[in-house]
Specification:
By secondary structure, the protein is of the alpha/beta class. The protein is 35% helix and 24% strand. It has 9 helices and 11 strands. The strands form 2 sheets. A 6-stranded parallel β-sheet has the order 3-2-1-4-5-6, with helices on both faces. It starts with a strand and ends in an 8-residue tail after the last helix.
């Protein structure tokens, strides 16, 4: 269990705080909008209303006691910069700040943010990859070269064993799981026989995965 402070109750801040709490973490939310904090306070044991960029406010919260401090302020980038800087000055262990533009990423890192997330860019890139090629259901980038993809099983593989298809050698991708009817099989042996309703969770280079996915002859969605 982690202790988490989320500053800025915009859409992302609210979803983040709720999910962190659902995962069993201790979450404190903060925003200067009193009406919004009153609305959210029944959901959270700790809800603070105040301008976190003002002198002394963050110090009174004790930000150095949290495992993670998220700065998810939406429109006021100057306030985001100030709060991120103050958090680091007060000894916050790990600060994650949200950016809306590439230039903001640079500034937030320069003033001490341990990590900067750029959700609009990440969503756009994810959508671009998913719809750049047919039959890509989902995608998670691991590095600039390798990613995890969810694709339907290739039609010609149906009824064949994993060992007979020899995916790794022939197609340069690794099958790490098979999803069928919302059940995930992570212990895939060589004797596993592909079913026509299988979705494959694979690891590989985008070009190699796109090549395999293009061989699927049935509708993807």
């Amino acid at each position: 269990m982690k202790s988490v402070l989320v500053i800025g109750m915009g859409t992302i801040g609210i979803y983040l705080a709720r999910k962190m709490q659902d995962l069993g973490n201790e979450v404190m939310i903060a925003d200067k909008d009193e009406e919004l904090i009153q609305e959210l306070s029944p959901e959270f044991n700790d809800a603070f209303c105040g301008d976190c960029s003002a002198d002394g406010i963050l110090k009174s919260i004790g930000v150095n006691t949290f495992d993670y401090c998220f700065v998810t302020i939406g429109e006021d980038f100057y306030a985001s910069l100030e709060i991120t800087s103050i958090l680091k000055e007060l000894g916050a262990k790990y600060v994650i700040a949200k950016a809306k533009r590439a230039r903001q990423v640079e500034f937030l890192k320069k003033i001490g943010a341990d990590e900067v997330v750029y959700p609009d860019k990440e969503i756009a890139e994810n959508l671009a990859v998913r719809y750049n090629a047919d039959n890509i259901f989902d995608y998670i980038e691991l590095t600039s070269e390798y990613s995890i993809f969810e694709i339907p099983v290739v039609s010609s593989w149906v009824g064949k064993k994993v060992m007979d298809v020899d995916v790794r050698r022939k197609h340069k991708i690794n099958i790490i799981a098979v999803k069928n009817d919302n059940e995930l099989n992570l212990n895939l042996g060589g004797d596993y026989v592909f079913d026509e309703n299988d979705h494959l969770v694979v690891l590989g280079k985008s070009s190699d995965v796109f090549s395999v996915a293009s061989d699927v002859k049935r509708p993807s969605r």
